[in-house]
Write a structure and sequence with these properties.
Blueprint (H helix, E strand, L loop, with lengths): L8 H16 L3 H7 L5 E3 L5 E3 H10 L2 E16 L2 E14 L1 H13 L3 H17 L8 H10 L6 H7 L2
Antiparallel strand pairs: 1-2, 3-4
Helix pairs in contact: 1-2, 2-3, 4-5
Amino acid sequence: MTVAQPADLAGLGRAEDLLQSVVAANDAVGLAGVLHDDLVARGHDGLLHGKAEDVAGYASGAFAVTSYAEPRRHCLLHGATGVTFVRAAITARINSVLAEVDAAAVRAGISRVEYLRRTLAAEAEWASRGAHTPLVREDWAQLGELISDIAGEDVMRGAWS
């Protein structure tokens, strides 16, 4: 990110508005343009991530914001340096688990649905033998979230092509 203008509170507010708009729009190209190259931020997983990781997550669809609300903002300006403190309520879809399921299905040469069917069948077999803990309500809830798009026309077309 290049700063070509002197710092001012109105400009700092506009920069924050731009950042929030590209985040809310899941615009990876826009995000790459507004984030500083030396960015270090705490991600949804609690770990520190840099600009490249953040932009890649948006670009791949592994991370997608579904709602963004800003209940509070405070801007500070000290000389040519500005800092914006934002409290934001962000809801997002994180597809890293789904991406892993899809990758495993591709490696096996089968659809996501077939992969999940086989995995659940194996889980039931293991549970019946007492080999490990059976699925619990939370497991089924997570599965429901992972396959919530199963009825989507594009998903089904991709599963059978």
